[in-house]
Amino acid sequence: MSTAVQTAPERHATPYAAVLRTEARLFRREPGALFWVVAFPQLLLIILGSIPSFRKPDDGLGGLRLIDLYVPVLVLIALVMIGLQTMPTVITGYRERGILRRMSTTPVKPSALLGAQFGLNGAAALVSALICLTIGRLAFDVALPRQAFGYALALLLTAAAALSLGALVTALARTAKVAQAIGTGIFFPSMFCAGLWIPVKAMPDLMAHIVVLTPFGAAASALDQAFAGAWPSWSHLGVLAGWAVVLSAAAARWFRWE
Fold it and tell me: Mind listing the GO molecular function terms for this protein (predicted)?
């Protein structure tokens, strides 16, 4: 893998474009990463949607079905996977093997590699979200987001926060194994905040008020609101934007190329 990353940019191609093409080829060759990001949320959606009780309206949820609440949650899973499990191990692996240090002496700067990783992982998560929405609509008659622009904005801010969180894990971890350990430690609390076990809307009031202050709790609430046709609360969008700024600033402060 390291040889491919160090390949000189093609003639007439910018360093960033060359790195982006190389990283895209490597990304496609990682079936494990593609499965957890693109396939796992959809498989979980199919499993949950196959449970009869998940397809029955619940008066306690305002007449919604549990599957209606879980589609936005499963959209978040791909972003959590990308931010905590996929991107940090790749970049720390490059640092561990000295690839970033060697790249810094060539026209292909390490910043081009980081930009390519952010772009590819963010695009993969957004593709996963679109697939999840499509399956939910076609297989289980889950309504599409009624506030499309608000949903798109919330999704983009969530992607920014998730990737910034991954960048911070990358900055703090010296090796790929350490990055994986840190990511796993944050993964399960993030899944809880996203509503995987209990949808945020169904949580007790005090718990819900605390959860929406976290990036994925705010994301789940904002996406729920956009699904229902309302513009996402500016407080939820502000929490997402604030986390993205704080996490990215912390990552830039502590990131080391070597």
Answer: ABC-type transporter activity
Closest to 113 (Cα-Cα) out of 105, 122, 103, 124: 103
Q: Is 81 in contact with 36 (CB distance < 8 Å)? A: yes
d(CA 220, CA 245) in angstroms, rounded, equals 19
Among 127, 147, 109, residue whose Cα is nearest residue 236: 147
* Domain boundaries, position 86: 2-254
Amino acid at 80: V
Quote the number of domains for the chain: 1
Compute the Cα dihedral for 236, 241, 245, 251 and give only its sign.
positive
Q: What is the pLDDT of residues 169-196, one digit of tens each?
A: 998 998 889 998 999 899 999 989 988 8
Cα gap 232→240, rounded to integer Å: 11
Return the residue matching tokens 């693109």: 38
Of 251, 108, 256, nearest to 175 by C-alpha is: 256
Amino acid at site 95: R
Helix and strand element counts for the chain (H, E)? 13, 0
Give SS3 for 64. strand
Q: Is the pLDDT score of 41 beyond 50?
A: yes
Q: Which amino acid is at 216?
A: F
CA 132 to chain centre: 14
